[in-house]
Amino acid sequence: MPRTDRFLQRIGAVFLPEADVVELAGDPAPSPEDLAAGPGLPVPAPGGPGPGLPGGAAGPGGPFRPFPPVRFCRTSLKQGCYTLSLVPLGTSIFGTRYRGTLRVEQVANGIRFSGDLYRHRLLDVILPDPQPPVLGQPQLLGERGAPSDVAADTGGTIPIYSRRSYHSYLRGTGAQLISFVPVGSPCTFSLDVEEFVYNQPVTGFSGSFNPTPTRSLRFVLAQTLPDLFVGAAFDGTTNLGVVSMRWISSNFRRAQLQINTLQGAVTPPADVGGTTMASIFGAIGWELTVTDTGTIQLPAALSGVDINACWDRGDLHTLMTSVPGYKPADLDSVWRVHLVAVPAGLFQPPDLCSRGVMFDAGLTDPNAVPREGSATFSHDGYPFNEVLDGAGGSHYDAAADQQQRNVPRAFLRSATHEVGHAFNQIHQGFEGGIDNSIMTPTPSVARVLGASGVFPDQINLAFNDQVTKHLRHLPDPAVRPGVMEFFGSAIAAPEPADVAWLEMLELSVASSADRVALGEPITLSWTLTNRGPAAVPAPAELDVESLIARVSVTDATGKITFMRPAAVKSCPRIVLVPLDPGAAVTGSATVFWGADGFAFETPGRHVVEVIVLWELAGVPVAVSGDHDVFVSFPTSDADNEVAALLLDPDVGKAVAAGNAAPFERAVERIRRAAETAEEHPANEALRELGLRQ
Asked: Does 526 score more than 80 pLDDT?
């Protein structure tokens, strides 16, 4: 039986905290006893009446005691976006405060809410009054403006803060919107959240969240003005400081989309029966401003590109950087994605261009600013004989053998699909199954409609509930452009208990070398063979870029390094074919460096494992195999120097790309390593990979 320990590490699962539905509690709260004399709230004597008990009633554990008259309070929170402020107690004028947004969604039987906090200093924002308000002692707006550090009144505009100042995500876990308070006191309510602090990287912005919360907080607030709530933040019974929130918009988030069309291509339709990209995003509570800045010429740097063939992703990035107004530094103040339309008309198999692509990820992102852009292919289309989810034939109906430019509804859907990838959304086959929604790939939508519907007339131009939840409540770094990398199905990784291991299939793993030197890459290959008596649907390709095959390395200390591909495909074509008894399918990859680090950084035994993971009828299935690789101890100064030169991220990127030319630092370090020890095994391996003469 395959081992399941640390399974999520071995398959490279990416953890993203996300809020879920919170049922509203029916009993009044917050409890003064629990809050240990929170600001502005009276605390009854021990044994006295608890919250929710009218004056004169006997509290649990004690006799009758006088108690001030109380009144019933029910707080109603508007749906949409709130500005949020948190000021720790004792914060000086030079100290760090936190500001951000809180999103509240009304759902059946409760609410779903989440927030994001960014660091800032008071000197960064000039505020007139240095005294923060206190719960029970509201401070009203006056001629001098807002009280110090109160959640900002932005006039209905959802604020956007710098990527480097991002601090943490708040996942709503509980809400108490009913309370009994003494007559004359403000109505109070509480929100419980788990805080996940973001691990900012040393360079760039693509960090990570730990799978367990940093701490749990309770916000106890009272309304001081229409749409403004002020109170205190607690960690258990410890008062952390002043918290405030202000409703500013019925939308949850805002972003911009800039569309440019290469001369010779056709722009996606702006309106199909009253539906636009802006209205599609508007339906899920996003304020998306769409700007079409017109036709662009092919830049001189791409003069040799055939615009009517499938495009290289690096060329699409070059094209994006040539459009008017392109400026990645703006991503600290605006969530902007680019959509470029190009012809790419070779849509007959095997030359499918796949109708579009989110190209700005991994090694195809020269400026390391992820998810800035997507492309849509106006002259690609819907070939009658395209393979649809493993089945031949077409469900494209009247659109069969048509180009996208001639099928407006399908063209708008496909272009919006690629924009969805730019906001880090993945194919719905990885999240509970295909359906007739925008983030399901076009062939799968056609398959769904082939069972009960007509393509393209009955295409649903909308995101489904799962994607809607993600776009409303995933952390800012996960969805805003220019922060976290595109992780593909690693975000929707299955739990080990949900995986069925197919024992009738065997996965054998082999290496180009079983003993390697520090700094030496290897070529790893794997073969999936059916040892059973009947055919089994299996992937036709076992590549790492689609995350069908997942490679990890466990060193002698037990440390696991997932070989995360340098460029995860945003639109992988995963085709299942019958794998007959005795038949096999193979895959391979260079193993040296991945986005999570190097495979072999220390001497000793390393277990290189391959897990092939896919779905059958909605059930995740897997097969695994492994191979031992021994890393030699350095025995000379030359060994040490070669290792120091080659175990460098730029060299790793060159090896992953199969081309050192775009990485000047890598070219220089590979040259110096060769001069140090020409016959060193690492230098020989680089020569075989074509990375040096």
From this structure: yes
Please tell me whether residues 218 and 298 are part of one structural domain. no
Of 263, 616, 286, nearest in space to 438 by CA: 286
- 214 CB burial (10 A radius; 0-12, 13-18, 19+): middle
Whole-angstrom Cα Rg for the chain: 29
Angle, CA 522 vertex, CA 554 and CA 583 arms, to 5°: 90
Residue with tokens 């830049």: 299
**CATH code, 135:** 2.40.128.120
Give ∠ CA 295-300-301 in degrees, rounded to 5: 110
- The number of distinct structural domains making up the chain is 3
DSSP string, 547-608: TSEEEEEE-TT--EEE---SS--SS----EEEE-TT-EEEEEEEESEETTEES--SSEEEEE
Could you tell me the two tokens for 691?
């990375």
503 token code pair: 């024992």
Length in residues, the chain? 693
Q: What are phi and psi of 399, to 5 degrees?
A: -85, -5
On the question of pLDDT at 30 being above 80, the answer is no
Give the dihedral sign, CA 291/295/301/307.
positive
Q: d(Cα 288, Cα 336) in Å, to the nearest integer?
A: 10
Cβ 489 vs Cβ 468: under 8 Å = no
Q: Burial letters for 331-352: b for 16+ Cβ neighbours within 10 Å, e otherwise?
A: beeebbbbbbbbbbbbbeeeeb
- Give the torsion through C-alpha atoms of 307, 309, 313, 314, to 10 deg: -50
pLDDT(39) > 70: no
User: Residues 38-53: what's their mean pLDDT?
Assistant: 35
Task: Report if residue 16 sits inside a domain.
Answer: no
Two tokens at 429?
């086959």
Average pLDDT over residues 123-144: 41
Contact yes or no for 257/291 (Cβ under 8 A): yes
Last residue of one domain, picked from the residues 437, 464, 492: 492
Residue 206 has pLDDT above 70, yes or no: yes
Per-residue tokens: 230: 């002020």
515 or 137, which is more confident? Answer: 515
| Separation in Å, CA 582 to CA 503, 528, 534 | 14, 10, 9
Answer whether 274's CB lies under 8 Å from 280's CB.
Answer: no
Closest CA to 603 of 518, 679, 543, 680: 518
State whether 472 and 515 are in the same domain.
no
Which of 48-62, 158-172, 218-232, 429-443 has the weakest average pLDDT? 48-62
Strand 188-199 to 208-209 pairing: antiparallel
DSSP annotation of 67: -
Same domain, 245 and 391: no
Average pLDDT on 512-537 reads 97
